[in-house]
Amino acid sequence: MSALADAISKAPEPTLETQVESLVYSDLAPQTAAIDRQGVYPAAFMHDLGSTGAYRQHVACRHGDGQQDFAAAIHAMEAVSRECMSTGFCVWCQDALAWYLENADDAAVRDRLLPGVAAGRQLGGTGLSNGVKHLHDIESLKIRVRRVEGGYVANGTLPWVSNLGQEHAFAAIFGVEGSDRKIMGVTFCNQPGFALQQCAEFIALEGSGTYACHFRDSFIPDEHVVSHDITNLMPRIRSGFVLLQMGMGLGLIQGCIDIMEQFRETHSHVNRFLDEQPEAMAEELADARNATCRLGAEIGDPSDALFADVLQLRHTASELALRASQAAMLHAGARGYLADAPAQRKLRESYFVAIVTPAIKHLRKELTRMGAA
What's the whole-number mean pLDDT along residues 204-228? Predict the structure, then answer.
């Protein structure tokens, strides 16, 4: 064996971070403008990202050793969101679906559905916005199911569910007719009685595969039911559901800092008079990252105390994202108004960080209810 061949054979395997960043640079970045302006859904990238292991870091099937690494999952999402938060949102949808399946009441349901989702072979999303808002007394449930032999029959419409396509799947919360019980089930978009409908055009996140979901006597078998009663499930998944969203916020903030640094090279003589500067923003981002890692290590704790800490951190991320995107736009100046300028795109994306469930107003409502505001 030659010295070169020997060196290659002994070279360490690339880290997850290296693989994700390389894939973002080579496969995602060239599509970012088309994703944002034309609504292109990056299906190939989403599948390929799963091949790196990005979607399985936070679930027990990560290495077959029962260990979970929320920080690694969030960091991978952050790398994607730094370039394109629309795609970062899709990554969160995928990770959230895996998280629900990880916590399924029936291990057989988990073992049947989770491996494909965690590997990125089966893409999918989360339809929990309506259910979570319902549980927090914000809106009524939009999908009802009735119990039949071997499963449930669903009827109703969810207006917006993301990271979907004809071959995709998603989890949602359904109210059981004739009772106060609620279940969580997985719907496959090609199953009978179910249809996707294109939504109105959005100003951002247009490439996120977002559709209205219509159920017309659509059967959900027991084999696809994550929980027949979500009373015990929600405390297990709620902190992870929200904390995973930090990957979107952290990545967007870092992308805004990148823009501020870029324009420092040519406009420091005037940009130095702006209130927000990249060094101070980077310090706040580092604090948020550290807090995310710390809470990620405690994610198995179903307590209200941990959930309140997660909600507070998520609120901080929303506010910081809004500040960072406005700062990036001001640092870019007139160049930020160009149709393909990253600054104006990140400004639009930052509002999504602040309004996606749980939105800032929702976070403040829940923190007040918990006495943690």
Answer: 95
Q: Which ranges in the chain belong to alpha helices (H)?
A: 3-10, 16-23, 32-38, 43-51, 70-83, 85-102, 107-119, 129-135, 233-243, 246-271, 278-296, 304-332, 342-355, 360-369
Mean pLDDT (whole number) for 221-236: 96
Which region among 4-8, 47-51, 149-153, 247-251 has the lowest average model confidence (pLDDT)? 4-8
* Distance separating alpha carbons of residues 245 and 243, to the nearest angstrom: 5
Helix axes 278-296, 246-271, angle to 10 degrees: 170
Whether the full predicted model's pTM is greater than 0.90, yes or no, is yes
Token pair belonging to 297 = 């290590």
Alpha-carbon distances of 346 from 19, 302, 343, 367, rounded to whole Å: 24, 34, 5, 27
Contacts of 2 (CB under 8 A, 6+ apart): none
Whether the upstream peptide bond of residue 358 has omega within 30° of 0, thus cis, is yes
Which residues make Cβ contacts (< 8 Å) with residue 104, sequence separation at least 6? 110, 113, 114, 226, 227
Least confident of 59-68, 93-102, 201-210, 337-346: 59-68
Amino acid in position 350: S
Between CA 255 and CA 298 the distance in angstroms is 28
Q: Which domains are assigned to the chain? A: 15-123 (1.10.540.10), 125-227 (2.40.110.10), 233-369 (1.20.140.10)
Q: What is the dihedral of CA 114, 116, 118, 124, to 10 degrees?
A: -90
Q: What is the 3-state secondary structure (H, E, C) of 247-282?
A: HHHHHHHHHHHHHHHHHHHHHHHHHCCCCCCHHHHH
* Dist CA 62 CA 242 (whole Å): 20
**Residue 251's closest CA among 182, 185, 325, 338?**
325
Please measure the distance between the N-terminal and C-terminal CA atoms of the chain and give it in whole angstroms: 65
Buried b vs exposed e over 186-199: b needs ≥16 C-beta within 10 Å? bbbbebeebebeee
